[in-house]
Amino acid sequence: MGSQSYRLRGLPSSTTAFPGSSPNGFSLVLADVSSAVTLSVTLSRMSASNRRQFLGQCAGVAAGAWLWPTFAYGTATAGPSENFPTDPRQRVAVAAYPFREFIVGWKGWDGKTPSTVPLSQQLELKDFAAHVAEKFKVHHIEPWSPVFSSTDAKYLEQFRAAVERAHSSVVDIAVDQGHSQYAFDKAEREKAVTGSMRWIDVCVALGSPSIRTHVDGAKDSKPDVGRAVDTLARVAEYAAKKNVVVHLENDNPVSEDPFFIVQIIEKVNSAWLRALPDFGNSLAAHDEEFQNRAMEAMFAHAYGICHVKDGEVDDHGRASHVDLAKAFQILTKHGFKGYCSIEYDAPGDPYKPTAELVEKTVKFLS
Q: Phi/psi of residue 118, each to 5°?
């Protein structure tokens, strides 16, 4: 049997890891011929204690020969190589967004309105993975940036440790960073770049393979492909160095029109900038024919994650219904291998609808 290799999260994708024989399951080898570093375990899946020991070994061995920053942020190869699970249930994730009222710290859309859910029924975001595992028998989560109580190093270490204790993983972070990638104002576009970069670093800290960055509307411009491409190309370049995929979602019907998103992705032409198809968002603003074309276009550029929902409610309270069979048919047609994140999006308690969508998704993937 040949050696199996692994990619290390947060390290260049040209770095290869091979199984070793040390007591802790990892070793460090410096290859003289290619000046490559080979390692024996995926750093992002190690326990906190082993990671600290591992990094200590790296620093010791590399002293005098390698500089750690150069090693960590070298040039990435052509694209990501995430090893997605094939078991139907393991391909399912649960998004935090539908549960925002149940997460400590949510203050409503205006930032001033406390949750109506009693505090005794709320939970910390870092405990969401364990909660999802208990309630839905799902071990992958998609946190949402507005409900993070902190992004400092100590909190992220605690968050990651809690996820590991639940035998779970973060598979994407849905990021709403509040700045337009296509604004005419250059300073606004710069804020969009730095905001996305910050959340890419959060992904590395949590071991997440990707983010979804929201394409915000601009006060001074209609959607502009050229400026959006310039902005997101810089984000994708940074993400590539960190082995993190950046996803764009068909969400806002204007700033995130699915065909506008596809134009951006095609012009940036980076394997690190991909589409996140949402089953219901385009249907809320358009008809079923548009929705099907949108799903075809988005899944043709998808990679790591999609959002599963069976309906959507528009700004006027009108509900739409998703043809799940058709959506999964398109998913399968395009050979999508990534995660299906359950994002129930309608008024009311999200628990029962989420549980039902989990089981339906498992069935469609089987």
A: -55, 145
